[in-house]
Specification:
Number of strands: 16
Number of helices: 2
CATH architecture: Sandwich
Radius of gyration: 18 Å
Strand order of the largest sheet: 1-4-5-6-16-10-14-13
Structural class: mainly beta
CATH class: Mainly Beta
Shape: globular
């Protein structure tokens, strides 16, 4: 859990306190501080949100789980508005030997491409399910095959990639799981079957 100093609300917090064990980047530049409950419009940021977060611009969205979630937004370089940065968080560690998948919950305020890599290798996350956190915040549960890297030490990185729409990513519950990610064809069959069942129920109610 983050250790936010008393009185640090709407200001900056050391990465070591806000994101223990993680590193924050804007572009390729490592950050020593992240924002707390304040995200700049159109500017690349890494932010720790919570508790009782409400964005100052008027948009409201909650914490996915627990007391805090991480918010990363690509955009203008805060030191040079004529250039643009991706925003990332990364952690170096060892993937558990029994890990079959990496799973995490995420939600996007402004939709855009994001990437998840291990030692520079794309993990290609797929949608496993959708849900709603205790605060009412919707999220998508993603899973990615991590089995090729089980037992290896390296850097896991989440990156919100820049485009012109200020894309951002709310992240929480990043875990390794011994459960494998279903093949895409299997996921498609599960989704199709669920939709077919929903249609049958709708028709039954309307008949």
């Amino acid at each position: 859990m983050p250790v936010i100093p008393a009185g640090q609300y709407g200001g900056e917090v050391a990465v070591s306190s806000a994101l223990p064990g993680w590193t924050a980047y804007l572009g390729n530049t490592e950050q020593s501080q992240v924002l707390h409950n304040y995200a700049y419009n159109s500017t690349a940021t890494v932010d720790i949100l919570g508790p009782n977060w409400q964005e100052t611009s008027g948009y409201t969205f909650g914490i996915i789980d627990g007391q805090y979630s991480v918010f990363i937004q690509s955009g203008n370089d805060p030191n040079n508005v004529t250039t643009f940065d991706n925003a990332s968080i990364a952690q170096t560690g060892t993937v558990p030997a029994n890990a079959e998948s990496l799973q995490f919950k995420a939600w996007q305020l402004y939709v855009g491409r994001f990437s998840v890599t291990f030692n520079g290798n794309s993990l290609s996350p797929v949608v496993l399910s959708t849900g709603q956190g205790p605060s009412g915040q919707p999220y998508t549960l993603y899973g990615a095959d991590i089995s090729p890297y089980a037992g290896q030490t390296g850097q896991l990185e989440f990156t919100q990639l820049y485009n012109t729409a200020d894309p951002s990513l709310l992240l929480d519950d990043i875990t390794f799981s011994p459960n494998a990610v279903p093949e895409p064809s299997t996921l498609a069959l599960i989704v199709t079957g669920g939709l077919a069942l929903a249609v049958r129920r709708w028709r039954a109610k309307g008949s």
